Structure formats: C-alpha cells, structure tokens
Amino acid sequence: MFKKKRGAVGIGTLIVFIAMVLVAAVAAAVLINTSGFLQQKASSTGRETTQEVASGIQVERIVGKTDAAKLNIQQLAIYVSPNAGSAGIDLRKTRIIISDGSQQAVLNYKVGDGQTTISNGTNSLTIGDGQTITITYDSINNQVSFSDGTTTVTVANGGTIQDTETAMLAVADNTIGKGYIVVQSTITLDGTQDVGGVTGTNDLIITDQYGNQMVIYDIGSGASANVKLSVIDSAYTPASLIAGGVFASDKLAWLGLSAATDYGIIVIQDADNSVQPLYPTINKGDMVALTFYVGNDAGTAIFGQGIQPRTKITGKVVPEFGAPGVIEFTTPTSYTDEIIELQ
C-alpha cells in the first residue's frame, strides 16, 4: 500500500519537472529572440546615428548679383559640398531655408522628367532623353524640321522653337554633330560652313538667342540626319558648360527656374558624374552652386525686388539627413560691384 503512494508522488514530481523544463525552454526562446531583435535594432540605430552625425552639407561660399542699377541683390549662388566622411547627399531632397528677418522662404530643386515638348505653334513633338530624331534642313526655304516619324515640327530661320518649359537639346553622338541649344528661344540657321564631319561638305548650324550652337554634320546643303539627342529639362547646368560664370544668362540653372521657390544646380566639380539632372547626388570631392532668385524688377521674387544694403540674411541648407549648412551674412552698406562675395 505504501509503495503505491510513493510511486504516485514520483510521477507527479516528474510531471512538474517536465512542465518546469518546458516553461524554461519557452522563456529561453523568447529571451533569445528578443535579444537578437534588440541587437539588430541597436545595430541599425547605431548605423543611422553614425550616418546622421557624420553626414551633412557645408556651405563653402555665397555670392550675389545685383540688378543693373546696383540697388538690390537679385540672384544668389550658394556653393556647397558634403562634410568630410559624409554619405552621398540627394539634392532632390535638400531644401534651402532663407530669411531676411521679415520673410522666410523654403526652396526646392526644380527637377524635370527627362523629356520636353517642342512646338512651332501648330504641331507639337515630345522628345525624350536619348531619343533619336530625324533633323532635316531645307536649304531652299532656310528652315529646319524635327520628326519622330509620326509628327514633324518645322521652324524657319528667325523663328522660335516653342516649348511647354525651358529645356536644353544637345547632340548625344559626336559622330553626327555637337553642341546644344536652349529651346523656347529664337533660332538662326546657317548651312554655309564646314565645321566638322566630311571635309568639303557644309554643316547645319542652329544658333539660339543666347549664342549657343547645335551643329549637325553634312546636311548644310539640304539633307537629313538621324540624331540622338540629350534632353535636360531640370534647372541644371553641367560642369562642361560653366564658361562665362555662374551668373551667365544662358545657364539652364537660371533659365529653368519657373516658380519663386525653385532653385537650380550648377556643377562645379564632380569627378564621378554623380550629379545628374534627374538624380543629383553629391559625395566626396563634389561641389555645386545652388542658384535662385531673391528679387526681380517686378517684385514677385521671394524678397520682392531683392535684398537691400545693410540687411541680415539667415538660413540653412538642409539635407535629407545630417547636419545642415549655415547661411548667415549681412549685406554691405552699399553695392559698388554687381558681383558681391557675401559669405
């Protein structure tokens, strides 16, 4: 009788022991999973914190340009580069915050979509970046046509290539031609010169109102060529076109600004070609100028007609992550030059 009771007690103890082992196993599994998750979370947070601390943008200098009468500063160019050790900075996500003490504006990069629509007032043709277009020169009537095989836009010498936005068309294949023109401008045509291609054959030279030239080889006597074109419809000027200075009137970084709160990009230095019109990213060694209007004669810019003498300007260039660049300067007591170093 006593032996049977001892056996029952032993089985109960075993059941309790097994239950404790199972509970301990479940608890251990939960702790292991939790610790693994926390470790990964801590690692991720550490990387993000390191990126936030190490990354950022630095304002190298700020230059302004006055109106013709030297009464107000109407254009600003802010030279920026990434901080030492910074990750790449996407300028599409970078904002400029600027204030004159009474007004504050937030500016964003004017980015396009990589295509433009040209027109002669009757027909319209949409051209995408990298698209091949047939360009035909009618030397008898002195007019040029652009065609994608379905739609043709013809513009005469002295006429205007109209556009829904200001954009740049450039020859992408240097065996066919060279150069670029800014559309939404008056053009002149010249088919009497031999500047490349087959020796002894005249080339078509299309010159826009800013003096830029697109040359199509060997069609100056009246012929056609299939030309691969690059399209830039963002407020962007590559490093290869900075001749004339950052305030030159033919720069698309200025011409492409459509809203008062737009800014453009002029590439100053970019060894790895990371600063592209649609996806501009600055990284180690890069420098760009951020361009925008602070005034105009009509008084419709962010600071009306511009920044007057003795005005304190503050602000920041704020990247998507990392430390912002600081804007802080006071304009001189008078403007004796059109181009003024401000910071």
Automatic annotation (TrEMBL):
InterPro entries: Flagellin/pilin_N_arc (IPR013373), Flagellin_arc-type (IPR002774). GO terms for biological process: archaeal or bacterial-type flagellum-dependent cell motility. GO terms for molecular function: structural molecule activity. Keywords: Archaeal flagellum, Cell projection, Cilium, Flagellum. The keyword Disulfide bond does not apply. Belongs to the archaeal flagellin family. This is Flagellin. It comes from Thermococcus onnurineus (strain NA1).
